[in-house]
Amino acid sequence: MQEGFNLKLIFLESSLFSGLFIMSLDSWISGSDGIRKEIKNPYSSGCIFVIGILAFGVFGSIAFLFFGVIFLTAEDKILPGFGSFFCFSLVTIFIITMRSYRKASHIIKTIDIQTNTSLLSLRETGKSDVELPLSEFISYMILFRMERSSSTGTSINTNSTWKYWDLYLLHKDGGCILLETFRDTDSLKKGLEFFKTTLPLPVWDRSDLRITNPETKDIPYKQDPKKIEPSPWVKTESKDQGTKIEIIEPKSAGRTFITILVPALFYGAWFTILNSFLSNFENMIFLIFFIPFSVFFLGIVTVLTVFILFKKTDIIANSLELKLRYSTRIPILSGLLYKERSIPLTSIRNIRTIRMEKDNQILCVALKSSNTQKERTLLDRLYNVQGVNLSAKQLPGDAELLGILALGSWLPKGPGYSDLVYAEKVLESVLNLREESLTFADLVSSSHKK
Q1: To the nearest 10°, the Cα dihedral for 47, 7, 417, 396?
Q2: Pairing label, strands 130-133, 137-152
């Protein structure tokens, strides 16, 4: 299960929060030894906290009381009953979520590009530091994305499309680290000038702005990075003639409660609509719309519940292959939907760790395009449904990019980015993987051939 899904649930569909957390160059601190940025938890206070109280706390409580009165007085209990349950769930999710974020209000993330040591340092309160040599980064990478949102005013409804340009640092193994997100191209170009002054890497534009720039300077290797120390949240053990690595998920009653509420809300909405139809069965034309809607809606809810919310992945590696054992935490279905995927060492191109937009942090395995892929079964495809879209992070030469471990951020306790990097190093060591070292020239020439 992806922790970030639960804790950000109430923010996913609200246009009130679209574009509020766009990064700013003003937050970068320049010094004689490099540049640094400190990022505080944006969800624990400020506008989002006030808006959340008004939109979810106040409105949800009033609506809960309204539907509760109707439930007690009306003959038909289904519709007001679901209305009460929906509002109660909304308020409960908000309280649990904000309580978790408030507990994490002390967390600070730091990105530090150090010219005196030629190291990129990534730090997070309570977690082990991650240091990477600047000489191992091959370019800046620009990706474009769009998000649609709808906003409701007092008199008009509007649909908005938000445009973003994400600026990444691209590592030679294909992993990438988000530096900044921009809302317009002028800010993006100014940002590139700012970063290239400190770190003169080439620019790979994948957003069709045509600002790819091969200009670069050699970056010296000055000192070894600090060794990452494993946290209590990372567990390795011998299993099936290999090494199993697991990142333990923090457990809490609130998080478990939210996980149960999510599918209950969706299935409850469908049942309420069905009951309304059955109470007015004379209108048979409604079936033309209701049947395909039910198949589509319930299909999405089932995939979301079984293959994302309750997904479990066991990762076992040896000197010959990487095994991904997929199952679901739902007891009745765990054996029926069990699936093992074996990836031979010769098919693995890279093991990558990605820090991307919306605070997502993912450990991935990239497969080679030269390898003959056997046809995937339906379960293979369903278990590869990602709560996070990785298609834009797939590089030329990748046949497939599989997300195998995903973490949310701004959690009061639990694993962090350093644990994903540690897991990456363990897998590479156990597999004795000779990763393909990517170059800027190869990536740019490959993308031009498409």
Answers
A1: -90
A2: unpaired
The pLDDT tens digits of the residues spanning 239-279 come to 988 999 999 988 888 888 888 888 899 999 999 888 877 77
Q: How many whole angstroms separate alpha carbon 441 and alpha carbon 309?
A: 40
- Tell whether the torsion through CA atoms of 355, 356, 357 and 360 is positive or negative: negative
- Model pLDDT for residues 270-303, shown as the tens digit of each residue: 998 888 777 776 666 777 778 888 888 899 899 8
| DSSP3 helix / strand / coil % (the chain, rounded to 5) | 40, 30, 30
Q: Residue 299 class from Cβ within 10 Å (0-12 exposed, 13-18 middle, 19+ buried)?
A: exposed
**239 forms bridges with which residues in the sheet?**
242
pLDDT of 58: 79
Could you tell me which residues are beta bridge partners of residue 313? 326
User: What is the torsional sign of CA 73, 76, 80, 84?
Assistant: positive
**Percent of the chain at pLDDT above 90?**
47
Q: Whole-angstrom Cα distance, residue 233 to residue 16? A: 34
SS3 202: coil
Q: Where does the pLDDT of residue 103 fall: very low under 50, low under 70, confident under 90, or very high at 90 and above?
A: confident
| Alpha carbons 210 and 236: distance in angstroms, whole number | 45
Torsion angle of the four alpha carbons 232, 323, 7, 46, in this order, in degrees rounded to the nearest 10: 70
Comparing C-alpha atoms, which of 407, 394, 354 is closest to residue 233? 407
Q: Please report, for residues 168, 279, 314, 371, 447, the alpha-carbon distance to residue 374 in angstroms, rounded to integers and kept in the order given.
A: 33, 50, 22, 9, 25
**Would strands 398-407 and 119-124 be described as parallel, antiparallel, or unpaired?**
unpaired
Query: Are the CB atoms for 404 and 216 separated by under 8 Å?
Result: no
